[in-house]
Each structure stands twice: as C-alpha cells, then as structure tokens.
Amino acid sequence: MAFFGLTALGPQNSFDACSTNFRYIQVFDEDDFLEAWNKACGTDSLHCHRAKLPAVFKALFHGPIPANEQGVINDAFENGTFETPDTVSRDSYMKIMLHLRSEAEQESRQREGKPNPNCEFNSTSELNSALRKNAAMKRDLQT
Asked: How many of the other CB atoms lie within 10 Å of CB of 69?
C-alpha cells in the first residue's frame, strides 16, 4: 500500500522536487516545528540558546538543512528580534518558522503550472506528447 500525500520526502511533482527553487519547509506544520524544538531544547523550554538552533533544524529536517533553505533560515534568525542577543524564545521561533512556511507556500503557488526557466516542459505527459508528434524542441535534449 502506498501513501500518496505530501510528506517530508518532498512534493509529488517530480519536476518541482528536482528544482532548486523548491522550499522543503512548506511540508511541515506547526506540530512539526514544536516537536523539533522540544527534541533539541527540551519539552518545557520557553527559551533556547542560539547555539542550539542548528540542532532544532536538524531535528526538523531529519538531517542537515537543505541547501536552498539554509540561507533563508539563517537570514530569518539573524535579522529576528529576540529578547537577548543569544536567546530565542519559543514564540519567536514559531512566529519565524510559520512566516517562512507561508512564504514558501506562496512561492510554490506562483510557480504552479509554469515551467522552470531552464525547462521546456512542466510534465512528463507534455514531453511524451511532443516526442510522439516529433515536434521541434526549443532546446536540444541532453543525451
């Protein structure tokens, strides 16, 4: 039996999954963000030292932060306003993570149905149809 939902493994659209523009943070919900916080900082912890943030993100992504998320997350937490320079509150963390997720979802909606600028096709069915028709390609296929 297969599960066809959106998971931490990525999107169901294989073209989007291979895109460097895909933001994996959009597959997580509020409970996932809290679970990662609790794993790294402790269940009842309301504050976390900045040095523990990489552990929070490692718990969230179940490994290293994907390259396309790294810069966005670092910028968000560098520019965030916190109670003290070295401490992040759980509320601030949640607010930033939910904001990043909504930004990623909005970017994904804007790209929906549009091929990547480097791609001529947005789906395998379109590519197969063009190949069957022996249509001229705008770009040469790499073999």
From this structure: 19
Instruction: Report whether 97 contacts 48 (CB < 8 A).
Output: no
Q: What is the 3-state secondary structure (H, E, C) of 43-72?
A: CCCCEEEHHHHHHHHHHHHCCCCCHHHHHH
What φ, ψ does residue 88 adopt, rounded to 5°?
Answer: -115, 130
Q: What is the C-alpha to C-alpha distance for residues 100 and 49, in angstroms, rounded to an integer?
A: 20
Sign of CA pseudo-dihedral 39, 40, 44, 46: negative
State pLDDT tens for residues 77-116. Answer: 887 667 777 888 888 899 999 999 999 888 888 877 666 6
**Token pair for 51:** 């040095």
